[in-house]
Amino acid sequence: MNRKTLVLPAVAGLLTPVLAACGGSGSGSKGGDAIVVGTTDRFTVTKDAPAPVDPAYAYDVGSWNLLRQTVQTLMAEPKGEGDPVPDAAESCGFTDSGSERYACKLREGLTFANGDPVTAQDVKFSIERALHIKADSGVASLLNTIDTIETQGDREVVFHLKTADATFPYKLSTPVAGILDPKDYPKGSLRDGFHLDGSGPYTFQAEVKDNAIVSVTFTKNPHYKGAQTVNNNKVVVRSFADADAMGAAIDKGDIDVMTRTMSPAQIQKLDSGSDDNVDLVDMPGLEIRYLAFNTNAPTVKSKAVRQAMAQVINRGELVSKVYGTEAEPLYSLVPATVTGHSNSFFNKYGNPSAAKAKNLLAKAGITTPVKLTMHYTTDHYGTATKQEFEVLQKQLNDSGLFDVTIQGHPWETFRPAEEKGQYDVYGMGWFPDFPDADNFLAPFLDKDNFLGSPYSNSDIQRNLIPQSRRDANRLSAADSLTKIQDTVAEDVPVLPLWQGKQYIAARDDITGVAYAVNSSSTLQLWELGRGVSG
């Protein structure tokens, strides 16, 4: 086994107008058989989530990684790092000095995979559909700065924004802004089941058993015109119950690539060099983990309780015991590598201290020990999540200030329950929609936030978030971004825990592995090819 570390440029979060044309269509297969990719992501149709791959509903990294292969967007994140580039668009850019009018021109001759032409009217239909449906997943909030959408002929579309939004090009690169054929998608309702169509690099065919995806076959779309070069004819993504089953499959040669989520023990084993036929690639990542609070719940309604938890939890010990070198302590919602990051929680609370936490609770008149239950998902973020919550439970209980129990739930019940406010405290992860500080703050703190959190701060929503979006130079937004992070550290509606690396493993005849996942954890299957082993 060979270990490879991918070093990417620092995420600067700088957004500039994109007006130049870019890219071309794929070059064809470089290998014979389909490349088989393993994942532990689970895709299930339930009563609460009947349309898990509809762009107007899907809002988790696993589902988005299916959508990004099939549904094309006006803009796309580039290979490596940098500002978004035109994909379905020939060119895009702000046409005013205030970042409130954004115009795009579609590529000439663009069609869906079924041969239907892609028009500006389809772009308008698709984005207005997501805004109208406003699914309870919260994904439509990414588009909430749009006021009206205007079309000019079949190829030009103009977005008029409610307020300045320098991050808007990135938002147009996310699946919620995917371009859909009105023949396939109802205007006012979600498309149930596992049907997915678009004009992206691949077509989509799911194998389903017991209302869950077993595997997805992605076949190269011959009609695709866009920014990506497609290096294969077919990729099959197989869903596994856990990391051990996925690891056994790559050992046998049943799969070629192993993606999220590998366990810490599995990564350490691969890193030891026990398999000369498998390469492990580690790369910078922007994944974060945090505790979220239902701030209306009696157990944690008092800010002092949430502050005391922030004062007690030892992130360094947590990371060391559970994740080792695969994660780093995080003291803000914004990762340390993103422009605008501030160590707000460390600045406020310093090192863990039960004595300081006791004083916070005493001043607020809170009786100790505070009894509460922390909830986590058993099958969405990897098998180490249970161990993580056991460490957190012990830290809080050992302080003598808390009496914490923990409960694990499968994602298909965990996520709907969290959205409905059934958990007082619960663990979540975040994989950014795009690599900008705004996307680590607004989704949690703005109106219609994706957590469904009752926490609301008028200064953040009315002033600081809009201010932070006004300048394409993200360094200029630092003051507003720091104030937001300091407010979060004071009020603790969420409690950041750690920031993780990314890993991908592949058999040594697979090429393009280093670019198969970008810093936003976006799976880019088109980068994969088949070469010569050795």
TrEMBL record:
Gene3D superfamilies: Dipeptide-binding Protein, Domain 1, Dipeptide-binding Protein, Domain 3, Periplasmic binding protein-like II. Residues 1-20 form the signal peptide. Pfam families: SBP_bac_5. GO terms for cellular component: ATP-binding cassette (ABC) transporter complex; cell envelope; periplasmic space. PROSITE patterns: PROKAR_LIPOPROTEIN. Keywords: Signal, Transport. One of its GO terms (biological process) is peptide transport. The keyword Membrane does not apply. It is found in: Cell envelope. GO terms for molecular function: peptide transmembrane transporter activity. Residues 84-449 form the Solute-binding protein family domain. PANTHER family: PERIPLASMIC BINDING COMPONENT OF ABC TRANSPORTER, PERIPLASMIC OLIGOPEPTIDE-BINDING PROTEIN-RELATED. Belongs to the bacterial solute-binding protein 5 family. This is Peptide/nickel transport system substrate-binding protein. It comes from Streptomyces murinus.
